[in-house]
Specification:
This protein is of the alpha+beta class. The protein is 41% helix and 22% strand. The protein is built from twelve helices and 13 strands. The protein has a six-stranded mixed sheet with strand order 5-4-6-3-1-13, with helices on both faces. Strands 10-11-9-12 form a four-stranded antiparallel sheet. The chain has a three-stranded antiparallel sheet with strand order 2-7-8, with helices on one face. A hairpin with a 5-residue loop joins strand 4 and strand 5. Helix 3 crosses helix 4. The structure holds alpha-D-galactopyranose.
Length: 392
């Protein structure tokens, strides 16, 4: 039994709820993690590099096939909310149950891929905080796809295909034009490692975390809201900049080309492009620094990444900038801190020696309050494995 599933604290509650609601036992369990991105923000849809790790927080799904093509959903964390639709009919958006659109979207992808998804009873539970920028939605999409793959034995679906299907569900059905990072790391994460992912080729190189290094995630308690429109707008600006330079994606533009080619491009789009081109180079450099245990170098790259997200890409908020400043001060040259994820609230990631974690937490408790008065939430995370499925 994959230990990450059998050890999940969510498992007993999920099994009990499944049996109580569906009056049967599940046949399949699937688990998919959230993620924290160490560096490489808004580079994925520009065909660049990202450096995320899978985290322990995850979505767990229990499933049982049905022969009548009905799909019935139960969401434990949403007060037992339910949804149902048919797996053999046109799947449309639900305005009544927006959470269910992530499931509807991936089942529709199974249909579009010609895989004739079966009906199923599905119960869902998760402990990835929602609205925190830790990819709760990607973990839901991937867990559901892994569950269906196991239910129907779909051997043709490899890890990259699953990630692509989950991404398309979010792009085409949910309406967020996200890149591939969140879904890919949720499928392919490796325990104890970050992955340097080339978002053009989907090649991924595991980068071990040096012993004694802590990955700290700090939630600002500013919930990300209404971000899809701002996200999609950034993506359009990047695409406009790529068109201006006559390339497929900003991955293909060098910093000298960018600096020489501002004329004729909207100045805002040029600044968005400067973030992306610089961030792609920083991400490759950070993977080298991490592998070499070069914490001062890593800290400088993270600081430059944060400044670029704040000043050129304009996706940070004051509370996040304040968190980063507090952490940078206490960490000094022993590591670094930056916002992680899509932006507009959510979390900061810090890399620092384990023996500095207590001092960093104390500094946050003393000096940080969210606009609503809350203290920051702090987790020290261990990079965990990617998605798994097994017989229940
Ligand atoms: C969100 C998206 C990802 C990526 C990040 C920013 O998490 O889902 O594809 O673009 O934002 O790096």
């Amino acid at each position: 039994m994959p230990t990450a599933i059998s050890n999940s604290p969510l498992l007993p509650g999920l099994l009990a709820a499944f049996q109580a609601h569906f009056r049967a036992v599940p046949t399949t369990l699937a688990r998919a993690p959230g993620r924290v991105n160490l560096i490489g923000e808004h580079t994925d849809y520009n065909d660049g590099f990202v450096l995320p790790c899978a985290i322990e927080a995850h979505t767990l799904v229990a499933a049982r096939p049905r022969s009548d093509h009905q799909v019935r959903l139960l969401a434990l964390d949403l007060d037992g909310a339910t949804d149902s639709f048919r797996s053999d009919a046109t799947i449309v958006h639900s305005s009544r149950a927006p959470w269910a659109n992530y499931v509807r979207g991936v089942v529709r992808e199974l249909q579009l891929t010609g895989l004739a998804p079966c009906g199923a009873d599905i119960a869902i539970s998760g402990n990835v905080p929602r609205g925190a920028g830790l990819s709760s939605s990607a973990s839901l999409e991937v867990a559901v796809l892994r569950a269906w793959q196991h239910l129907q034995g779909l051997p043709g679906l490899d890890a990259n295909a699953i990630a692509r299907m989950a991404q398309r569900a979010e792009n085409d059905f949910v309406g967020c034009h996200c890149g591939i990072m969140d879904q890919l790391i949720s499928v392919r994460g490796e325990a104890g490692h970050a992955l340097l992912i080339d978002c053009r080729s989907l090649q991924a190189r595991p980068v071990p975390l040096p012993p004694g290094l802590a990955v700290m995630i700090v939630h600002s308690q500013v919930r990300r809201g209404l971000v899809d429109s701002a996200y999609n707008e950034r993506r359009q600006q990047c695409e406009a900049a790529a068109r201006h330079f006559g390339v497929a994606a900003l991955r293909d533009v060098s910093m000298p080309q960018l600096l020489a080619g501002a004329a004729g491009l909207d100045p805002l789009a040029w600044r968005r492009a400067r973030h992306v081109v610089g961030e792609i180079a920083r991400t490759e450099a950070a993977a080298r620094a991490l592998a070499a245990g070069d914490l001062p170098g890593l800290g400088r790259l993270m600081a430059a990444s944060h400044a670029s997200m704040r000043d050129d890409f304009a996706i940070t908020v004051p509370a996040i900038d304040q968190l980063v400043a507090i952490l940078q001060q206490v960490i000094g040259s022993e590591g670094g801190a930056r916002m992680t994820g899509g932006g507009f609230g959510g979390c900061v990631v810090a890399l620092l020696p384990q023996h500095r974690v207590a001092a960093a937490s104390a500094a946050l408790a003393a000096h940080y309050r969210a606009p609503g008065g809350e203290a920051a939430l702090v987790w020290v995370c261990t990079p965990g494995p990617g998605a798994q499925a097994m017989a229940a």
